[in-house]
């Protein structure tokens, strides 16, 4: 068995974080998960987004309990998951940076005044919180989908700690 195929337990000294390495090599889309809480917009970059159910339409995303916006997403009701398009790396980095001015220059769709919908995203999924579960060190947020804005751009791809494009 080669080193690359060896089975190792996560976190053991002989194999420093094989789970993180394996998951890091899984290509994903990149999303901005956004909400409006009171008068203030909040959001974070997430690649833990997944579809859960077709009927009813449910999607999910996981938020680390260490995130500054954790308290907001533990309470808020309306959420948009903006699946980023090729070329939106700068937005992905900004929303992954604690303390950054995340919404200052963000262009929002005026047709969705209750929740930040990102203009130029590949698609935005808008919905309400269906269920929340504390799972390990993350909050699992299950969202019941109300509306999908599909712009149809090429998606931004994340793989091995780098942003990539489909070819
Ligand atoms: C490509 C990428 C994907 C990420 N995915 C997630 C995720 O799924 N869940 C999460 O909690 N943080 C994720 N992060 C990290 C958060 O975006 C980052 O910690 C963010 O600053 C948390 O929000 P805060 O600024 O309110 O602390 C990701 C970061 C990057 C660059």
Task: Indicate the topology.
Layout: H1 18-24, E1 28-29, E2 31-37, E3 40-46, E4 50-53, E5 58-64, H2 70-73, E6 78-83, H3 89-94, E7 123-135, E8 138-150, E9 156-159, E10 162-165
Antiparallel strand pairs: 1-9, 2-3, 2-6, 4-5, 5-8, 6-7, 7-8, 9-10
Task: Give an overview of the whole structure.
The protein is mainly beta and 167 residues long. The protein is 10% helix and 40% strand. It has helices at 18-24, 70-73, 89-94; strands spanning 28-29, 31-37, 40-46, 50-53, 58-64, 78-83, 123-135, 138-150, 156-159, 162-165. The strands form two sheets. The chain has a seven-stranded antiparallel sheet with strand order 3-2-6-7-8-5-4. A three-stranded antiparallel sheet has the order 1-9-10, with no helix packed on it. The radius of gyration is 17 Å and the shape is globular. 26% of the residues are buried. Flavin mononucleotide is lined by residues 30, 44-48, 62-64, 67-69, 92, 95-98, 158.
